[in-house]
Amino acid sequence: MSETARWAVLGAGVISGDFLRALPQARLGALHAVGARDAERAREFADEFGGAISGTYDEILARDDVDAVYIGTVHTSHRELTLAALAAGKAVLCEKPLGISVAETEEMIAAAEAAGLPLVEAFKYRFGPLPERVRELVAGGELGEITEVETSIGFAADRGIQRLFDPKLAGGAMLDAGCYPVSFAVGVAAWAGRLGAVSIASADGTVGVTGVDEDATAEIDLGGIRAHVATSITRELPRAAVIRGTAGELEIPNVWGSRVESTADAVLRRADGTEERVVASTISPMAAEADATISALREGRTQAPEMPWFETLATARLLAEWRAALD
């Protein structure tokens, strides 16, 4: 691998563009190539963002001058592209959800393990100084024994966005947005050292005329911690999270941050009635995801500590159960 890791981006859509706007802020890598189903579209994208090389997915993955790939394509293509990239010897940063089923997720992780290469699920909210501080507060017992998590994400989507409302593209609120609150709840339980058997205790929601879930809520059992999660692609919901424990609670008003900037602050409320504002500097979370992937590659690791595989698998299992509850 060269001193500066050479990234290829697979997919020439909106989120890939956001990743490439962030990549110049990464310390360990830079754009080298762009791949897309349409080679002409790939060339346009490479020209826009300064990529030296472009081509189809197969052409880019066949190159020996690519160290890592970012996959920003529709959900249903994540498995195929991830397996092909790992087989070609590339580290992989793949947009969430990693797989659209538990079986896909397990297969992708097994392939990364066999190849000895990093595979990172790109939950951007996990990267940055405040997320690290939240992990420290939970793991350090500042909130006492964690009892409850409450979090949500929702937006009113344009129904013309095909990938959100087409079941053939694994559309729906849960896989597109609901994976955020589920993964957050899983993370809290893991940071507290209490992530055991996970299950959906109850679920409710609305399935639209296209056959995808459009609005859903669930109560999750995470080894004794209860999580209340909600998601929607038809209405706005708070982008907040509250972690409750026996010694206090932590409220994060903008838990997901944005694609441009990590979240900056939270409020710690202790059982004695005192409050403390928890403030941290912000970074580009997508650049941080990229650096975490390259750090793992350079150090011979297959996982990033911000989003380890056991949490990815627990999230996939809960999403599958949640979706099945609305069938």
Task: Characterise this structure.
The chain is of the alpha/beta class and about 325 residues long. About 35% of the residues lie in helices and about 30% in strands. The longest helix is centred in the middle third of the chain and has 19 residues. The relative contact order is 0.16. The mean pLDDT is about 95.
Care to count the β-strands?
15
Low-pLDDT stretches are none
Gross CATH architecture of the largest domain: 2-Layer Sandwich
CATH class category name of the largest domain? Alpha Beta
Number of domains: 2
Task: Give the ordered list of helices and strands.
Answer: EHEHEHEHEHEHEHHEEEEEEEEHH
Number of helices: 10
Shape: globular
Helix content: 25-40%
Whole-angstrom Rg: 19 Å
CATH domain fold name of the largest domain:
Dihydrodipicolinate Reductase, domain 2
Going by helix content, strand content and strand pairing, the class is: alpha/beta
CATH superfamily of the largest domain: Dihydrodipicolinate Reductase, domain 2
Mean pLDDT: 96
Largest sheet: 9 strands, mixed
Cα distance, first to last residue? 47 Å
Query: What fraction of the residues are assigned to beta strands by DSSP?
Result: 25-35%
